[in-house]
Amino acid sequence: MMKMMHAEDELTKAAATGNTYHVQFLLSSGVNVNGVNKFGRTPIQVMMMGNTPLAHLLLEYGADPNVPDPGTGSTPLHDAARSGFMDTVRLLIRFNADPNATDHSNLRPVDMARQTGHMEVAEFLNRIQQGDSKVG
Q1: What CATH number has the domain spanning 71-136?
Q2: 82: which of 27, 67, 71, 124 is 20 to 30 A away, CA to CA?
Q3: Predicted model pTM
Q4: What Å distances lie between residue 89 and 27, 38, 69, 73, 135, CA to CA?
Q5: Percent of the chain with pLDDT over 90
Q6: Using an 8 Å Cβ cutoff, are 46 and 15 in contact?
Q7: Is the pLDDT at 2 greater than 80, yes or no?
């Protein structure tokens, strides 16, 4: 007997595997973009941060760019900064991600970028924190 997958689990699985077409289908069918899977994570938390078109789709449908990971407190901006995905960092900022959000270790996204050697991302986030409104 095949087990039915909850819509939120199906959406997070599609996001995690980069299946933009299926994500679009599920969202257009009314699946909650901020719904959590069985692990308590939303699609924007589990997606591959280097997939900017997928991030844009989720954000256009109202994904919360500031949702913290229940275990670490990291936001999607922390994850994108840690991985050095500048395009996704810019996109998250454009959709009101908080560059001053801190995780459970009291680290901000800019701190994550510095720790992992992504200086271009760190410099961009520094400019944002200093009030430079040029995010694109």
Answers
A1: 1.25.40.20
A2: 27
A3: 0.90
A4: 23, 27, 17, 17, 9
A5: 88
A6: yes
A7: no
Nearest alpha carbon to residue 64 among 25, 26, 106, 35? 35
pLDDT in tens, 66-105: 999 999 999 999 999 999 999 999 999 999 999 999 999 9
119: Cβ–Cβ under 8 A, 6 or more apart, which residues? 113
For domain 1-48, the CATH architecture is Alpha Horseshoe (1.25)
The residue among 28, 87, 38 whose CA lies nearest residue 12 is 38
d(CA 116, CA 127): 18
Q: Are 101 and 68 in contact (CB under 8 A)?
A: yes
For the chain, give every domain's residue range. Answer: 1-48, 71-136
pLDDT score for 135: 52
